[in-house]
Amino acid sequence: MANTQAICKTFRVDLLKGLHAFGTSVVRAVTTVDTFKMALYLETATINSTTTAYTATGELAATGNYTAGGVAVTNATEPANTGGTGIVAFWTPSGSVTWTNLTSSGSFDCALLYNDTSASDRAVGAFTFGAQSVTAGNFSLTMPTNNLTTGLLRIA
Amino acid sequence: MKVWTTKGEIDRDELVVTDEITEEDNARVFATSWHHNGELVRRDVNVNILRGLELKGEQQDV
In this complex, which of B25, B42, B52 lies closest to A137 when CB atoms are compared? Predict the structure, then answer.
């Protein structure tokens, strides 16, 4: 046998599950899973990798059956690292994210995934899909296949 | 069959339906537009996210 320098495979999954607390103080107080939400943003907004938290700036107006802050994502899937060499950890919501009878206040092209349990609504990721508008209809985001190559969040 | 629109419920037979599929970098978008007498009265959109986001870093020797 020989020793090999490496990030342990389970560490990535553990990060997604909040099992480590680096830093000089413990910031997590809850022992339950967090609630994550998706909010929709106008194509004129600026949501990107520098976004640190949910913001109402640039979000669809709270009209036409849209509620500020967006909707909760269904979280019934454990983060995993199955398949391949087991290095990639991944997680995907267990259902589509849907708005019904929606009339968007403008053209929108982005959904922000953020942690609604976090006191500061910390941002997770921005997903773009080309400018869309919805009139008295339904808007849904269908999630990708939950695996190491397409999962919604992956740590490689 | 009735369809909910900006004008309330309208018989399906009175509506002209147009489906559109577009490809974005990381999503496939299915949009359905419903017109009544030439006026857009409903539009539904489904976005299939094809691939999520990856946080990636290479392991390097110390």
Answer: B42
